[in-house]
Amino acid sequence: MNKTIITVVGKDTVGIIAKVCTYLADNQINILDISQTIVQGFFNMMMIVDTNEMSKHFGEMADELKELGESIGVDIKCQKEEIFDKMHRI
Amino acid sequence: MINLFEVVETNEMITKENLDVRTITMGISLLDCIDSDLTSLNKKIYDKIYEAAKDLVKTGEEISREFGIPIVNKRISVTPIALIGGAACKSIEDYASIAQTLDQVAHQVGVNFIGGYSALVSKGMTPADELLIRSIPLALSTTDRVCSSVNLGSTKTGINMDAVKLMGQIVKQTAECTKEQDSLGCAKLVVFCNAPDDNPFMAGAFHGVTEADKIINVGVSGPGVVKTALSKVRGENFEVLCETIKKTAFKVTRVGQLVAQEASARLGVPFGIVDLSLAPTPAIGDSVADILCEIGLEYAGAPGTTAALALLNDQVKKGGVMASSYVGGLSGAFIPVSEDQGMIDAVEAGALTLEKLEAMTCVCSVGLDMIAIPGDTKDTTISGIIADEMAIGMVNQKTTAVRIIPVIGKGVGETVEFGGLLGYAPIMPVNGFSCDAFVNRGGRIPAPIHSFKN
């Protein structure tokens, strides 16, 4: 398994999850977990995904998701899970 | 599994609080390049460094992108050049040609600094050491990216006062040679007591002779993260304060450990150490002085500053040590003046003086760092300042350093602009009473009594 954390932050609007999930499905990226909340009108979502089956490079996926985010007015970031795991788990 | 709040916390540290990995520094041994022919020596040095470090910048950028953490600098440190050039160099121009080779290869592989134009003379100078030291003004004024350091003393050997005297002159000459750029050369020149072999930070990085052929050392940073964490515990007692610093330092250092291990694996170079440092930059919110203010001081330099810095330095180490498998380098809080907006503000407000900075260096990571002084300061006065700082390191069994910039043509009340990470600095007054007779005695100060531990 090759876990990546995708975070989506921005102004809430219709179809954010749908668009992100469509991209992930098109690229053989499996969603393992989603949590989402609205803080003061701001959409805040984190997805844990498995990129093992993905044929693209990590950087390509990160760029495409960032572009997708810009087109719907949210900020999308991709980071490998280890940075969070190292920082928050002993 | 990781939860949303942990992810948000990490990303806020990066985006709002300037958390970054300050440097990945590749240490490269040049001992196998030694040659009595200067042309051949320069070629071997260029080839070895190029071959070892050609993928360093690219790898750093890849890691940065995949983990979403900025890696600000990619750098190289090499074996002290006084040792490498001894057989081939007969003049200061010969030594300076090696500096130019280092500069060229640094440009070629894309690193922003290369350290190790250095001599280790804590007990005595060989003719090669002395020649290298005398070549420093020429080397630093004819290169962009080369950094130079000289180790002048240690707890085991005492202080080489002949070298201290010489370095007072060399600092001044370097300032003269680079006076068109506000004496910028001195920002790339540092003297040490108890210099570590594995320091990843410039200007003092060199690859010690006790090190492996190649090594990856990483320096972390996060003064903004510590400050933000402390702003949430205002008014709480010292126990809460110290626990908060420790936990924050742990998190910051874990990022450094991750980056170091990744860089080491991808480059096929062994992992050396993580340097647990709070290294400020001129960016607002990336300041060690701001942490001291958050602890409860109006300005850095107010009474209580030394105690606050002592506890900060100690808690950073306690939190960081558990987060990394190998810790080394300088490890602790850095207190450069020009690179820290809070320090600059404190100097401008009249709260922070050279003497208070000297006291602060007794309890923190390095020493008098990036301090601009009047350009007409005497050579012997600079040597006296260096000797004081070396004595603090020698007696307290710690690393101390001096990176001081006599700005030619400027005096107290004026400011000097170095640009970029080096920042700007108000010129600070220096005690004008003479120490000529002290500096001119010659010889060395014996090792302190507590060095005899055998």
Task: Note the main attributes of this structure.
A: 90 residues; alpha+beta; Alpha-Beta Plaits; four-stranded antiparallel β-sheet; 36% helix; B: 454 residues; Anaerobic Ribonucleotide-triphosphate Reductase Large Chain; two-stranded parallel ribbon; 15 helices
Describe this structure in words.
The complex is a heterodimer of chains A (90) and B (454). With 90 residues, chain A is α+β, with helices and mostly antiparallel strands. Chain A has a single domain (3-88), classed as Alpha-Beta Plaits, CATH 3.30.70.260. Helix content of chain A is 36%, strand content 39%. Chain A is built from 3 helices and 4 strands; from the N terminus they run βαββαβα. Chain A has helices at residues 16-26, 58-71, 82-88, and strands at 3-11, 30-39, 42-50, 74-80. Chain A has a 4-stranded antiparallel β-sheet, sandwiched between helices. In chain A, a hairpin with a 2-residue loop joins strand 2 (30-39) and strand 3 (42-50). The two termini of chain A are 21 Å apart. By secondary structure, chain B is α/β, with parallel strands linked by helices. Chain B has 2 domains: 23-193, Anaerobic Ribonucleotide-triphosphate Reductase Large Chain (Alpha-Beta Barrel); 219-440, Anaerobic Ribonucleotide-triphosphate Reductase Large Chain. Chain B is 44% helix and 18% strand. Chain B has 15 helices and 15 strands. Chain B has helices spanning 4-15, 38-53, 56-67, 81-85, 92-109, 127-141, 161-177, 223-231, 238-267, 288-295, 305-323, 341-348, 354-360, 379-396, 436-439; strands at 20-28, 71-78, 113-120, 146-154, 158-160, 189-193, 214-221, 271-275, 277-278, 332-333, 368-374, 400-407, 415-417, 424-426, 444-445. In chain B, strands 1, 2, 3, 4, 5, 6, 7, 8, 11, 12 and 15 form an 11-stranded mixed β-sheet that branches. In chain B, helix 9 (238-267) crosses helix 11. Chain B is globular and about 65 Å long. The mean pLDDT of chain B is 95. Chain A binds chain B through residues 5, 7, 33, 35-37, 44, 46, 48, 58-59, 62, 77-88, and chain B through 1-4, 6-11, 62, 65-69, 251, 254-255, 257-258.
